[in-house]
Basal-body rod modification protein FlgD (Rheinheimera nanhaiensis E407-8), 229 residues
Amino acid sequence: MTSNVNNNSALDGMYWNPETKTPDKNNGALTQSDFFALLTQQLAYQDPTKPVENDQMIAQMTNFTMADGIGSLNESFKGFAESMTSNQALQASSLVGRSVLTQSEDIVFTGDTLSRGNIELDKPATMMKVRIENEKGELVRSFSVENPKTGKNDFVWDGTDANDEAVVAGVYKIKVDVSYTDGKTATLPVNVYTPVGSVSMNGTGGGIMLNLLGLGAVKLSDVLEVSYS
């Protein structure tokens, strides 16, 4: 019986080892050393009768230098952006416990402090009426502002209902209707002050988020004003 097994040591190492693999350290990207190696080979194998022109060589070196510089600049900006985000988060943490002004259809009554806000008028009006409603849409309290001024009009709600009795702490709806001097009426957006409970970073590129008591998360960029109380 014959055997196909070849024990000739002379043949060892003549076959490709499928497990042998050149490590890919740079994901196939050309480095500066790769470029100069290619450039050296190009010069070594160029036609002596038609050598590479100086301007062509300079153009190749310039293009690579620009590409390498842009890559380094991108890495620098990435690190800068991460640093800025961390600094913003650190600065935003100082807002915890303070109140910030944001546009909202809800207003929070904490039970400890007055609920405050403001309404912006873009033209003269004769009457402005503020309505506070519960989650069922039932009227809790309403009050009017006679002859409101053009611009910012501040208001305060002490947390009492139409019978001057204290309501439970929680989130209430707020609506503002205005009657203009030209006879037209409109419903206006409302800006309210709400305490900041915590600060969080909303993932990559998401920016800084402020978690407002009862209202949830809002972007730091949406804050109109910061108050001490």
User: Anything to note?
Assistant: Residues 95-227 form a domain with the Immunoglobulin-like fold (CATH 2.60.40.4070). The two ends are 98 Å apart (CA to CA). The longest helix spans residues 54-92.
